[in-house]
Design brief:
The complex is a heterodimer of chains A (239) and B (326).
Chain A: E1 4-13, E2 16-26, E3 31-35, H1 42-49, E4 57-62, E5 65-66, H2 72-77, E6 80-83, H3 95-105, H4 110-123, H5 139-149, E7 157-161, H6 169-184, E8 188-192, H7 196-202, E9 205-210, E10 213-219, H8 220-223, H9 227-234
Parallel strand pairs in A: 3-8, 3-9, 6-7, 7-8
Antiparallel strand pairs in A: 1-2, 1-4, 4-5, 9-10
Chain B: H1 4-29, H2 33-56, H3 66-84, H4 88-110, H5 115-135, H6 137-140, E1 146-147, H7 155-178, H8 180-190, H9 192-197, H10 202-228, E2 230-231, H11 238-251, H12 258-272, H13 280-294, H14 298-325
Antiparallel strand pairs in B: 1-2
Helix pairs in contact in B: 1-7, 2-7, 2-10, 2-11, 2-12, 3-4, 3-5, 3-10, 4-10, 7-8, 7-10, 8-10, 11-12, 11-13, 11-14
Chain lengths: 239, 326
């Protein structure tokens, strides 16, 4: 039995089938890229996996435990955390407190939460901003902060939606370095990104979606040579 | 703003204590009973404002029912005293409990509502409660109100009782805001969807905030009716809620000290403007519009801004001087 399984999950909005029978699975410690054109259903799938939408049918299991239909906070407690495409931080509390919210919610005590928050802030070069209100940070710094919040409570699976979008290359480098470090420690990831070079560099495997369906699920270098993927998403330059 | 939310909260508590210390010595200078009464009413409003600020300023739940919960607390105690001759010292906790439980129930009902929908639902609730109390003459004596037994003979006792309540509530709110529960509430205020995704039980904490806020309003109302010796539906008028909102917005929403500053400022200036009649409300309405448009962080936010600016300027000056001496 796989560590994380998505079985025939569907979701529609009115007449639009956003996710149409998606199935794939992950083993513990895998780092998987989820790519596809705009409107292919990637973010909707992340919303389903993180509890923001209930699926119409199908099941989502982590360590054989179903999580479909649970509210986001319960999904978090089952070990699935998520970073949004549009950055979401708690703007009127400090950077350190943003991290502590996740730490406390994960059941860590004050000492443990503070210690881990400090380590994450150091790694993400946010320590000098620890006491600043998160709303005063730049867009890139807010993205780093939201990214850091995913890791404070020992998650089983981290879902990252466009972690490299609209940030300075130096911050992209910090995020990529931290993903590599956590992956080496056994962290499991699904990364949604349009940054194909980054996906190729970081993700040994990629799942490609188009029109709500999975059209390819293979090692990333093979996926990028797949004719269906080139036609649906990458375009002629990859031929 | 510099210093972070937690450091600001510590500063706000210190200023609150200083503010209340000044209030504690005021009776030595204010010897006219009328003005002492005005100060007691200001403390009552400060309690209700602090409670509403917990809900609106720290949790982002814009309720229009704080006056209704104060009325529920007041009638909870008043009815027990009037009909059963029960001591106010038992009636007051009962009234507070009634407001807390009803707040808990209303909190559960409205927790999925936001913005104008939440405001309208709580407004409807407040009006229903007030109309029921106004019309159930056989139980509540309707608009005539209930005469209730006083707690003390001397006004000064009420003065220090309300001051004590205010100190306890301010310190209690300080610890709540600084606790993990306080962080959850502020996270919900800033982005409840993100808070839920980061493991915060939004449903639970919104309900808790509603119940605690209602309980404090009920406590204030329960003591207040024994001070004025009358439980009347006027306690729950929407005008009273409007005053509470004006106090918090003018003082500084989402700060510990804002409701204190706002309550005293609005209540004292309201009394000073009483001679011009009800049109003094026009003055507060305009003030709230001006603050809402130009000074959204209220008086305390303005003070904090100037203090930050002053500190930044001093630091720059020190750096320049150090550079020049090298």
């Amino acid at each position: 039995m796989s560590f994380f399984q998505i079985k025939d999950v569907t979701k529609s909005f009115g007449g639009l089938q956003a996710v149409a029978g998606v199935s794939f699975s992950l083993e513990r410690g895998e780092l998987v890229g989820l790519i596809g054109p705009n409107g292919s259903g990637k973010t909707t799938l992340l919303n389903l996996l993180s509890g923001y939408y209930p699926p119409e049918s199908g099941s989502i299991l982590i360590e054989e435990q179903p999580v479909q239909g649970l509210p986001p906070n319960s999904v978090f407690h089952r070990g699935i955390v998520r970073m949004f495409q549009q950055t979401r931080v708690f703007s009127r509390i400090s950077v350190a407190d943003n991290l502590l919210v996740s730490g406390y919610a994960a059941g860590l005590d004050v000492h443990e939460s503070s210690g881990r928050a400090k380590v994450i802030m150091e790694k993400l070069e946010l320590l000098r901003l620890a006491d600043e209100d998160a709303g005063h940070l730049s867009g890139g710094q807010q993205k780093l902060l939201e990214f850091g919040c995913c890791f404070i409570g020992d998650p089983k699976l981290v879902l990252l939606d466009e972690p490299f979008a609209a940030i300075h290359p130096s911050m992209k480098e910090i995020i990529a370095r931290y993903i590599v470090e956590r992956h080496a420690q056994g962290q499991t990831f699904i990364i949604v990104s349009h940054d194909i070079p980054a996906v190729l560099e970081l993700c040994p495997r990629s799942v490609v979606m188009n029109a709500g369906m999975v059209i390819a699920d293979d090692p990333t270098d093979q996926v990028l040579q797949d004719e269906n993927v080139i036609e649906a998403y990458l375009g002629e330059k990859y031929l | 703003m510099r210093g972070g939310s937690r450091i600001r909260t510590v500063r706000e508590l210190r200023v609150s204590i200083l503010f209340l210390a000044i209030v504690a010595v005021l009776p030595y200078f204010v010897i006219v009973p009328y003005w002492r009464g005005v100060l007691i009413v200001a403390m009552y409003f400060a309690l209700v404002s602090a409670a509403w600020n917990l809900l609106a300023g720290y949790t982002g739940q814009f309720s229009l029912a704080p006056a209704a919960f104060a009325m529920i607390g007041g009638y909870g105690s008043g009815l027990l005293c009037y009909h059963f001759g029960i001591s106010p010292w038992i009636g007051i906790p009962c009234g507070t409990l009634a407001a807390t439980v009803i707040g808990l129930m209303l909190g559960r009902i409205v927790l999925r509502l936001r913005g104008p929908y939440l405001a309208l639902t709580t407004l409807a609730f407040a009006e229903i409660v007030r109309l029921v109390i106004s019309n159930e003459y056989e139980i509540t004596r309707g608009d005539l109100g209930l005469s209730v037994t006083p707690l003390f003979e001397h006004q000064l006792n009420y003065y220090y009782l309300f001051l004590f309540l205010l100190v306890v509530v301010q310190i209690g709110l300080y610890y709540l805001v600084r606790s993990r529960a306080g962080l959850y509430l502020q996270a919900i205020r800033d982005d409840d969807l993100a808070a839920s995704g980061r493991g915060v039980n939004v449903v639970l904490w919104k309900t808790v905030s509603f119940a605690v806020s209602s309980g404090i309003c009920g406590l204030a109302g329960a003591f207040y009716v024994h001070f004025i010796r009358l439980a009347s539906p006027e306690l729950g008028l929407i005008l009273q809620t409007g005053l509470v909102i004006a106090m918090v917005v003018i003082g500084g929403m989402g700060t510990l000290i804002g409701p204190l500053i706002g309550a005293f400022l609005v209540q004292l200036s309201s009394e000073a403007l009483r001679e011009v009649g009800l049109s003094h409300m026009l003055f507060f309405a305009l003030t709230v519009i001006l603050f809402g448009r130009f000074f959204r962080s209220g008086i305390w936010g303005g003070i904090d801004f100037l203090r930050d600016k002053w500190e930044t300027r001093s630091e720059s000056k020190e750096i320049m001087e150090a550079g020049g001496s090298e």
